[in-house]
Amino acid sequence: MALYKNSAYLTATTEAAFDTTHGLGVATPHSGIYRCDGCGREIASNAPNPLPSQNSSQHNSATHGAIRWRLIVYAQG
Fold first, then answer.
1. Alpha-carbon distance values, 1 to 27, 30, 77 (Å)
2. Cα–Cα nearest to 38, from 15, 18, 22
3. What is the chain's alpha carbon radius of gyration, rounded to the nearest angstrom?
4. HSE of 48, CA atoms in CB hemisphere, 13 A
5. H, E, C per residue of the chain
6. How far is Cα 26 from Cα 48, in angstroms, rounded to an integer?
7. Residue 68 above 80 pLDDT?
8. What angle do CA 17, 22, 26 make, to 5 degrees?
9. To the nearest 10°, the Cα dihedral for 2, 69, 46, 71?
């Protein structure tokens, strides 16, 4: 789970960007922190770089299903 120390740097939102999941290799729509809905691994990715795949030691498709990246922290420029 993503951690933070100072809540003054984060703002809660209901923006739809947080509701969408993305497969591996898809262009990162927003720079920020993404979490896999299956295994819970978190990564940082910059737009428009491709969202990364995960190796089998981190994500077991039989247990966790397909890799599904979800935006959890949006870095605004």
1. 23, 19, 23
2. 22
3. 13
4. 0
5. CCCCCCHHHCCCCCCHHHCCEECCCCECCCCEEEEECCCCCEEEECCCCECCCCCCCCCCHHHHCCCCEEEEEECCC
6. 9
7. yes
8. 110
9. -50
Asked if residue 67 lies in contact with residue 13, where contact means CB atoms within 8 angstroms, the answer is no
30's tokens: 């927003």
Give the pLDDT confidence of 27-62 residue by residue, as tens digits.
Answer: 999 999 999 999 899 999 999 999 988 665 677 888
The pLDDT, as a whole number, for residue 22 is: 96
